[in-house]
Design brief:
It is built from no helices and 11 strands. It is globular and about 40 Å long. It is mainly beta and 116 residues long.
Length: 116
């Protein structure tokens, strides 16, 4: 069973930056894509960013030009660099991985809190 472990969350003031990491227990090259999702209290989980095996990225409109997803295949890790954070970015952030057999795997989440 694939394990994904997120880290890097925390409390930051508006305008600040955080870098989230997602370490996988096996090679991330086997996954078609990996994604970052977030869920705020009383809201549905939403896609923040995704990155394909080839490195193609896609972003939610609300984070485009502020967040950057990247991957290090050698370290089996994906990252989410978050800049110019806003209070509305406050949420639990989850890492997910999707393979070619339509299986999906999720991390336990990391809390990001942005104070105004």
């Amino acid at each position: 069973q694939v394990q994904l472990v997120e880290s890097g969350g925390g409390l930051v003031q508006a305008g600040g930056s955080l870098r989230l990491s997602c370490a996988a227990s096996e090679s991330i090259f086997r996954f078609n894509s990996m994604g970052w999702y977030r869920q705020a209290p009383e809201k549905q989980r939403e896609l923040v960013a995704s990155i394909s095996r080839s490195g193609f990225t896609n972003y939610a409109r609300s984070v485009k030009d502020r967040f950057t997803a990247s991957r290090d295949n050698a370290e089996n890790t994906v990252y989410l660099q978050m800049n110019s954070l806003k209070p509305e970015d406050t949420a639990v952030y989850y890492c997910a991985a999707f393979d070619s057999n339509y299986n999906n795997y999720w991390g336990q989440g990391t809390q990001v809190t942005v104070s105004s």
